[in-house]
Amino acid sequence: MDEDDRPRPKGDAASKLAGEDLSPYSQDELEERIEILKAEIARVEAHRDKASAHRTAAEALFRKPGS
Asked: 2, exposed or middle or buried, with CB in 10 Å at 0-12, 13-18, 19+?
């Protein structure tokens, strides 16, 4: 089974963050949280791009000639 075919676990970290009550946080804490989330988005995007490039290279390697 491909990694993409596996079901995602319910209650993953991103889902939990999206549902968290933000009212207890101060303005400074919210700013810090935003910076942490931006860094995490950049990390995930870089990983996605690396995985995509790896997959493209593998597909090219195993592609039948003439297809």
From this structure: exposed
Extract the tokens encoding 61: 């390697």
Q: DSSP readout, the chain?
A: --GGGSPPPTT-HHHHHHTS--TTS-HHHHHHHHHHHHHHHHHHHHHHHHHHHHHHHHHHHHPPTT-
Q: Which pLDDT value is given to residue 24?
A: 97
Digit-coded pLDDT (tens) for 34-64: 999 999 999 999 999 999 999 898 888 888 7
Residue 3: predicted pLDDT = 59
Distance (Å, whole) CA 32 – CA 16: 18
Question: What pTM value is reported for the model?
Answer: 0.66
Q: Which two tokens stand for residue 58?
A: 């593998």
